[in-house]
Amino acid sequence: QLQENQDEIENMMNAIFKGVFVHRYRDAIAEIRAICIEEIGIWMKMYSDAFLNDSYLKYVGWTMHDKQGEVRLKCLTALQGLYYNKELNSKLELFTSRFKDRIVSMTLDKEYDVAVQAIKLLTLVLQSSEEVLTAEDCENVYHLVYSAHRPVAVAAGEFLYKKLFSRRDAEDDGLLKRRGRQSPNANLVKTLVFFFLESELHEHAAYLVDSMWDCATDLLKDWECMNSLLLEEPLNGEEPLTDRQESALIEIMLCTIRQAAECHPPVGRGTGKRVGSR
């Protein structure tokens, strides 16, 4: 009897879905389209056994191309609610492979709010499975740490930090109490220098520091480590920094000190509206 009741309820839900949602998710009024996507996100999250499959997910994927930013935004926030729950990751694999390129392209959306949420969604995708995003996908997000729009840059900074700086090797655990050149931060500081030099935007160290300030404050304030990398002799088997790398480290260090002292973003970075193509 329980099974019969459950089947009857699911039949009712399917009738409502086909009779209402399938027609209204393409409604002429953007607000109604946004409500539809928001609700289907709730359904998939609350009742994943019935709704979290590609028959329903595809509607969210298609709607990510909607011409209204508020609707695209609802798609991304609905997906974030699903990717945040790691237990649901296996049910999202096909959707991710099918619509990943669209999500990556949305990091350059003409609406800044949409771009920010696209980066945050990719950060969740990254945490669920690192293999999903290619090196090219990641690089498309990395360069946004130099964006003039601070929320976009900060979201990209968190993505960069999760990808390149948040993992520690097992041997690092034994170094946690060590300081200076022997601390776990030493390799992370060098990674930051290498990234800065590879990005070839050498006049924008202040932008890079500001982007990562919220998520990597402890690393960026480890001036003792930075000093020791500049002043002390390399450890056995350690490659010394080149003159170019030392100059980059000094530039980054100066920017971190200025950021800590002034407590505001660099000149030219704000939260204005973007005008451009979708």
Top-tier CATH class of the largest domain: Mainly Alpha
Structural class: mainly alpha
Bin the helical content.
Answer: 55-70%
Low-confidence stretches: none
Number of helices: 14
H/E element order? HHHHHHHHHHHHHH
The total of beta strands comes to 0
Short summary of the structure?
The chain is an all-alpha fold and 278 residues long.
Can you tell me about this structure?
With 278 residues, the protein is mainly α. The chain has two domains: 1-133, Leucine-rich Repeat Variant (Alpha Horseshoe), CATH 1.25.10; 180-262, no CATH class. 64% of the residues lie in helices and 0% in strands. It is built from 14 helices and no strands. Helix 5 runs parallel beside helix 7. The longest helix has 23 residues, at 2-24. It is elongated, with a radius of gyration of 23 Å. The N and C termini lie far apart (52 Å). The model has no long low-confidence stretch (mean pLDDT 90). Residues 21-106 form the SCD domain. This is STAG2 protein. One of its GO terms (biological process) is sister chromatid cohesion.
